[in-house]
Amino acid sequence: MRPIVQSGQVDSQQWDERYSGAEFEWTTRPNQFVAAELAGLPPGRALDLAAGEGRNTVWLAERGWRVTAVDFSRVGLEKGRKLSAARGVDDARVDWIVADLREYEPEHGAFDLVLIAYVQVTPELRARVLARAAAATAPGGTVFVIGHDLANLTEGVGGPQDPDVLYTPEAVSAELAGLRIVRAERVHRAVDRDDGPATAVDTMVRAVRET
Description:
alpha/beta, 7 helices
């Protein structure tokens, strides 16, 4: 998981350094909730915000999506390119864009899916990112948000310890103006630790823009 992305305390150079190792920081598999919730969507045009090393981007592209992957870490996106090539994904299926979410403005009404996975930022930036995500969603399109939940501080393991960057289903739903909320709930994710299995608590919100 990506614990803190594009906040005032963490910059692109730090993430470039973190992604600079030969191995992937977490895994090349898609997030379990992304795979479970989005596998049944008909492919179209997708936007993956803070795509990191591209694991969700590549999974979508393998399923026929045309993906715009945005992240402020050039090193992370380069690893995504390599993963995409290793999986045999056509280069034309993914646009890898180096950009900071503080400034990035996606095309309005252009995407059938907007994915926001573990973008743990200040409330002010989160509100801007979610508003832009909603505006970028085409009629009939989906916004899918998954991130570390506030309850994880007391009920789960791992993730950021700053409550300001953690999610709640209610807060995320309120910031997706103009969309119909399909699911908004806390979900539990199994985590393997050196001292045995544990559980993390995430917020998951799925919303659609009505046609």
